[in-house]
Structures are given as C-alpha cells and as structure tokens.
Amino acid sequence: MAYINQDDKKRIAANLKPILKRYGVKGTLSIRNHSTIVLTVKSGKIDFFADYGDREDARKFGIDVNPYWFHEHFVGKSKEFLAKAFAALKSADWYDESDIQTDYFNTAYYFRVNIGKWNKPYTLES
To answer: Which DSSP state fits 112?
Structure first.
C-alpha cells in the first residue's frame, strides 16, 4: 500500500533543494492523501513551455508532468531538470513491485510534478 509521511518528505526535500537551486527554480513539496508526494514548480529560469511545444493551454493551466513519458515531451534544460527532480522524488526508499497484468499494485508511494497550477501559472524569471 502506498504511503508517505512527513519524515520521508523531509528526506526528499533535502535531496531536491540543491537541484532547485542549481537550475534557479522555486517549488514546493506537498503530500496528497498520504500516498503521493507532489512537487509544484512555481517560478524559475527554465522555460518549460517552450521546451514542451509552447502550447497555449499549458501556459494558462500549467502542466501535469507524466513521470513515465516526460522524456518524450520535453527537451533541453526542462528535460534535464525533470530527470533529476524525479530521481530526487524517488529518494525516500521508493520501490515499485506492481504487476498490472495480475492487477497487483505495490509501491512505496506515488509522485507527481506540476509546472504551475490551474489558478496560479508558472512564472518565467529572466
């Protein structure tokens, strides 16, 4: 059963902080339903939208990054940052022994990355 607590969040935050600083990005970590750790990227020097294909809906409502396909959708600095961010999000003894063919799901916890929010878009800093 997926479960994450505040101690795990602190360990992830310690691993994530240098990555955010290195790329000039500001973000917050939160826990959703005691099962998912969420990194919300609020502002920074990386132009995620240009690296995502510059879609207008993404600029308006933000991007919910797919952790399994981000390398197909992003290029450049965005792709590099996301790879390191996802690695940091998995740093609290994460495992995944799920087998979808037998409808068996066993993972330490789930993780998500959002670029901006629907009500507060990502701000590109110069």
So the answer is: E
Overall residue count recorded for the chain in this entry:
126
DSSP letter assigned to residue 121: -
pLDDT tens digit sequence for 67-105: 999 999 999 999 999 999 999 999 999 999 988 888 888
CA distance 12 to 17: 9
3-state helix, strand, coil in the chain (%, to 5): 40, 25, 35
Pseudo-torsion of CA 74, 33, 36, 65, nearest 10°? 0
Q: String of b and e for 55-88 (b: at least 16 CB within 10 Å)?
A: eeebbeebbebeeeebeeebeebbbebbebbbeb
- Where exactly are the structural domains of the chain? 6-124
